[in-house]
């Protein structure tokens, strides 16, 4: 390998943001705040430790994920409740909003729909920011812990990784076999998980989540949603996952109807405006 004489100059070129978000459709945060003030709880579910739970959220409702009993991270999948082919697109959400999301940012759906599925409207961990290691909370950079990677790295067959937890929960909720449900499981929003990339080697890292019981993150459902949340076997992800070693706790999911009248004139975002002809 030959290092070119202008290597330093090439490295010194300043980066540009790939997708400046200024022209994205802006979430109406005032309206969402009005919907959240006076919201009424209509349902709840619990993701037991090292298990997942499904829940449904009508468009215009709000769902909250809360830490209970102890620090715990969760792996979240979202689908259009009426069409499982429209699902959360972690990679594009990352490209638009960065490695982690918080209040005012959105979970975007897969092609060809590509529209907001949910908007974060409240986050008690919003204070965390980006720490000295480049770590932050609620990541869209990890995928989900899964038994295939576990088998490659450690051998064995661990069945309570988030991937398998989500697969079982979706199968039970939707009346599908495990083989039918598994392809619908997708890369997650890692709720409460504190992660980043190491500066020196660019490797994905995790560290103990700053979440404490009572912390929560609230989402506005932009479309009818089916969600699945796994209480990760990594617990607070301070040491390891893909085993029964870490201390684990459940996660609570609550569904709220919006304050009466707050959503007058509001409607779900339409599917993406691209004509879909791909030039032919
Ligand atoms: Zn996990």
TrEMBL record:
Residue span, DUF1989 domain: 48-226
Source species, domain of life: Bacteria
Native organism: Tateyamaria armeniaca
UniProt-recorded name of the protein: Urea carboxylase-associated family protein
